[in-house]
Amino acid sequence: MEVDKNIYPAVGFNFRVTSSDANFGLIPASVLTGFELNKSDASFQSVTGISAKLATKVYGELGSNNRQIVLPESVSYGDLELKRGIVNKDSDIGKWCNSFLTNDQWTYFITRKTVNVFLLDNNSDNILITWSFYNCYPIEINIDPFDAMNGALAVETLKLSYSHFKKSWQEHANRD
């Protein structure tokens, strides 16, 4: 009996993160995002903050005390958090975040980027799902505490704000 591979949940440990200028997005994934099989913009330990929430407003129905009308208002998004171990070599995303959060500059302007998160299948580098975050800019860099008694890795967290995101599923030519 053939098992359909599409019904199993994806694993969350095989992913890649890339970035591109904000005026580009995810047109062909390999061209604009720089996604290649063995190359990613940065090796991140975790990605969190992929969330969207619809705000609602509750109105009491006139003439009825036991009913309410709930209407949609606007969508809000959480901050995207990229966490990684500190290494001697910096990525394009790290350089971009540090360029205006920590560097002393006379002029200050925010360069926005599109950040793409690719969830890959657990056996190869086939893209399962892509999240593209538009108009991103860094809002926080956080370094975990250094602790000689604990002996843990030195970890930094990059927090990004974004205007919206799109999720897309990839079609695979090599499905069985």
Description:
The strands form 2 sheets. Strands 1, 2, 5, 6, 7, 8 and 9 form a 7-stranded antiparallel sheet that branches. A two-stranded antiparallel sheet has the order 3-4. Mean pLDDT is 79; it is low at 24-39. By secondary structure, it is mainly beta. The longest helix is centred in the middle third of the chain and has 10 residues, at 92-101. It is extended and about 65 Å long. Strand 3 (52-60) and strand 4 form a beta hairpin. It is built from 2 helices and 9 strands.
How does the SSE layout of this entry go?
Elements: E1 15-21, H1 29-32, E2 46-48, E3 52-60, E4 68-77, E5 80-85, H2 92-101, E6 113-120, E7 127-143, E8 155-161, E9 164-169
Antiparallel strand pairs: 1-6, 2-5, 3-4, 5-8, 6-7, 7-8, 7-9
- Total beta strand runs: 9
Strand portion, in percent? Answer: 35-45%
Order of helices and strands: EHEEEEHEEEE
Estimated radius of gyration: 20 Å
SS-based structural class? Answer: mainly beta
Q: Main beta sheet, described?
A: 7 strands, antiparallel
Shape: extended
Contiguous uncertain segments of 5+ residues: 24-39
**What value does the average pLDDT take?**
79
Give the fraction of residues assigned to helices.
under 10%
CA(first)-CA(last) distance: 13 Å
> What is the helix tally?
2
